[in-house]
Amino acid sequence: MALGAIAGGCDCFFGYPITPQNEVPEILSVQMPRRGRVFLQAESEVASINMVYGAAAAGMRAMTSSSSPGVSLMMEGLSYIAGAQLPCLVVNVMRGGPGLGSITPSQGDYFQACKGGGHGDYHCIVLAPWNVQEMYEMPGLAFELADRYRCPAMILADGVLGAMMEPARIPDEPPVATPPPKPWATSGRNGRATQNVVNSLVIDPYELRDHNRDLQKTYQRMQSEVRHDARFDDDAEIVVVAYGIAARLALSACKLARERGVRAGLVRPITLYPFPAQAIREVGKQAGRVLVVELSSGQMVEDVRLAIDGAVPVAFYGEMGGVLPSPEEVCEQIVREVR
Amino acid sequence: MALGAIAGGCDCFFGYPITPQNEVPEILSVQMPRRGRVFLQAESEVASINMVYGAAAAGMRAMTSSSSPGVSLMMEGLSYIAGAQLPCLVVNVMRGGPGLGSITPSQGDYFQACKGGGHGDYHCIVLAPWNVQEMYEMPGLAFELADRYRCPAMILADGVLGAMMEPARIPDEPPVATPPPKPWATSGRNGRATQNVVNSLVIDPYELRDHNRDLQKTYQRMQSEVRHDARFDDDAEIVVVAYGIAARLALSACKLARERGVRAGLVRPITLYPFPAQAIREVGKQAGRVLVVELSSGQMVEDVRLAIDGAVPVAFYGEMGGVLPSPEEVCEQIVREVR
Amino acid sequence: MALGAIAGGCDCFFGYPITPQNEVPEILSVQMPRRGRVFLQAESEVASINMVYGAAAAGMRAMTSSSSPGVSLMMEGLSYIAGAQLPCLVVNVMRGGPGLGSITPSQGDYFQACKGGGHGDYHCIVLAPWNVQEMYEMPGLAFELADRYRCPAMILADGVLGAMMEPARIPDEPPVATPPPKPWATSGRNGRATQNVVNSLVIDPYELRDHNRDLQKTYQRMQSEVRHDARFDDDAEIVVVAYGIAARLALSACKLARERGVRAGLVRPITLYPFPAQAIREVGKQAGRVLVVELSSGQMVEDVRLAIDGAVPVAFYGEMGGVLPSPEEVCEQIVREVR
Amino acid sequence: MALGAIAGGCDCFFGYPITPQNEVPEILSVQMPRRGRVFLQAESEVASINMVYGAAAAGMRAMTSSSSPGVSLMMEGLSYIAGAQLPCLVVNVMRGGPGLGSITPSQGDYFQACKGGGHGDYHCIVLAPWNVQEMYEMPGLAFELADRYRCPAMILADGVLGAMMEPARIPDEPPVATPPPKPWATSGRNGRATQNVVNSLVIDPYELRDHNRDLQKTYQRMQSEVRHDARFDDDAEIVVVAYGIAARLALSACKLARERGVRAGLVRPITLYPFPAQAIREVGKQAGRVLVVELSSGQMVEDVRLAIDGAVPVAFYGEMGGVLPSPEEVCEQIVREVR
Questions:
Q1: Does the domain made of B227-338 have the CATH classification 3.40.50.410?
Q2: What are the residue ranges of CATH 3.40.50.920 in chain B?
Q3: Which residue, B300, C213, D52, D57, is the most exposed by fewest CB within 10 angstroms?
Q4: CB spacing of A205 vs B102 below 8 angstroms
């Protein structure tokens, strides 16, 4: 992810240490200065996100990275960045919660990432990698989408992905990312008559209404960026919906289920926001039943149920606290649902 | 609300100023010391919520109050308090967002309050007053429920309620609130062999799983506390679902609609978490159509749709940025839905 | 010291833990709430001193306690309190510095305490205890003097005194401290036409000059509070000047020196500010030579030299880093100076 | 000063705004990034000095700039930097104190700069410019001396110098500053067997004593860097000692006095630490009387008195609160002292 951020044109990283994502700042602390870019360990996560806010306002590709409790400290700043219509990247390598919890993997921050952990009607683009290859590729994609829609992007990974070693294709000379022009940035007048102002304060209620309507239009346009991955879905009698590391477990479970004669398919949301509701609805209706697997008490399952809207049954299987279910256990649940 | 907090046995208030809720700390700064209780203006909202955490751990009835951006700063602390299974009260007098936004009323923080603005699988009890009488009564109720379930409670009000003047019955001598015994509190050994420890850190994943299962059981038990208010629902051909100040507008709109021959009814969730899903499902199915009205781009509407689960159509009407729709406008929307 | 603070009428304690003074907040955290007084562990030392500032402005007897690094964080706040002419008590149980240093005893913060560690022309009353009895008595005295002169008072102790156990007379029922009326306090109008304002901001330079002249007049008046202790000074051929724990070592050294035929005397400043310059000058001139002993590289020695002003030789003997010289070593130095 | 910092090889600037020094960060915020160097507005002065600490540990030429209250917030960090034996540059453009005071010029922070505003036995090299030329030249000199002695350097200016416009010679292509090698820096192993550690924590008292003795030896060696400026001192019957803007006033006053037949001379300390004690003693003794002029209640006067040590009379003339005495007024004081 650190190398992907560099390849993706990250100009500035601001962060504060927390397990299980310390490898990201560790690598960037060495690699960013070598390239004349900024790495800064801030005083706290509150400081980090506000430095991201400032650098993003100045037109920089700015990012921070943390894990669950640290990301919670960023909720005010994230809402400010969204309100000010600025692009940036926030990485959350989720650990078990709530509270300090543990440093083991979890998917308990889906609601925070996708429903607005901060205040007000805003959204981040949320990307969920499931292997090291995507961990490398997604920072660049996240910066690109964030710039396109002038909104924060989030990568929602977990402690397994944060510690995983596996082969990935990393180009020797990654293509140089060329951010779009940012005429709104507070990077000096550049010959204009007036200076740019970046702000999230809109005192007049009618102006704030219009501002919110603009944001909502952006979120509508953003729907075209929805991404998902489907496997064994053509003939599925049950479709499993899972993201990130849970999707890897679910894919193995689908294969096991097919060995046992149950035609299980998988839909893996790659973008959690915008959510691939239409694809899930179609595949789900065709299969006739849906099982959502998460490392939580059930968060994404709500978006799946909203997508299905009562058309077919939606079951849930989850595990919490950093315990990973085995493919066998997930397979048994799949079989149980069908029979 | 300030007087209600005092009557409700609030021992300690920690907060930081923000409009439109400054009347709460202003009054408490005078009234709490007079009663030998603690009022403290903290360095920041981050400090406030952590002081609430500490006081709650020591068995005190502790509260803080803020408005949207300030509440976002409390998300880490709130998750810690939930993880540590501590009772407390957080008041959010919502203003228009995202970001600094404005100081006008809004309901844009429903997701944050009800879906977990902080990290991890946790919930607060969320109460939504709609008049000054409930503003007075809810702090006591919130403390009582928080103590019963050892979880944070939140009162989700808005800028209109924060500024509203209207008659309310306030007892001359409010009944003295008697909190339950708190044998878990870190208030000294009190003759026990070992000291109590309050923490949200559970390093072992299997212990953290068990801890999370306990939390989920608590959230199940909590469902019995669901509260709602229904008006004109017996013969309704359309049911409006709204909370807080939007419900007052909606009630006026229902009356206007009935004058125009449309039998509109209202269901007002009083507890937003636990959510009155069953009542809404029953009333909604009976009426045949549902309209959700919120001062947001549509947040509670997801919980209504999850409750209805496709059984009948669910429409949404919202306004953002601190602009209040008139009862006439809501009435027109009601009529439009039916015809 | 904690018991002395209670007996001295301390209304509020704000602090943050640091060795070697943790016994003070530990005891007060239990004892203050029992008496309906405030104990609060703040977010940081910066927060602590600003809470002291606020409580002092409201007329409370407010204190904080820390050790060297923590006290350095209070320098801005202390200057504000001095500028706003407010009474308060700051305790510094000095440890070895600079930086984190160690937790061993030191007297390296004399300059900070007496010359103005914060910015601007201000002074604190600085008291230096040398045994547990004075540790108990000085908080009350400090509050009394601070109230009288409306200035911060500091108790400058060290890590030995912070850990020392020895008999002290503590009255069963200490006399109730009755602070003077504080008509300037921001405790409400109390029938006056206008509210009090407490501030350290004086924008107009001529007003700020007058304000500073007032402060200087206060520091002049304060000179009458100078306190010192003299032993064996009548016939001394050399006078040792030392304060705090160094004075105990020095007293033993004087006795040893007299056994060896050197008539050594001791002057122990009890108030470091105001400094007992006149007493030291008189005793020093009479003896003909002076030796200053400090647990530092030589800080108070400057005030002794300013007092003596070249009249007789002033030597210095110091130790740093938490190492205490033995009475033998100090005695040898005394003898060496005379012969 | 900003241009001088760039010419002096400043790699990183960290700061927080405060009048009257905002021109420094304003210019550096534009000029540093253009050169691939770091400018960062931190969350607070506490954050600023700790970022300076970190960057200095990594071998960078790091600086911060502030005014009196902001500098007080840096006292803990400064003591850490001194304890860790790191070079850095702190600029204080003094304003009237204590507390918030005003934004007018002052010299009230001499004690803080020269006697150790932070805790423990440490010193900064302190340079006092008196015109724009020195404002330009001193950052480079400060970095050079700081690197040589591995200690913090401070430039102690004032609000007049902060706002003054006058001609200065600034080379078109300033000589490139080449800092010495820093084999102690935490910039990677660079082929060594072990990593460098930078710390100010020395738990063992005997080690901390040795560490302090090393520091004191450094301060002894540093005495060779003492710098002063003397005018009309050969035949002076009274010598005025003043630094910074007060020295400019004093020089004019000396000229006026000579017009009136009083042979006044001037000694201007350029380094406040190390202090030109020997020069002042010699010139003072020769002249027979000394007058110290400061924009304070009298702080440097103590160092002058310690230098003179009673040999000749030392008088003081000061003004406080941002009011500048006129050369006429100073001249009158000179004349009064002589007659």
A1: no
A2: 227-338
A3: C213
A4: yes
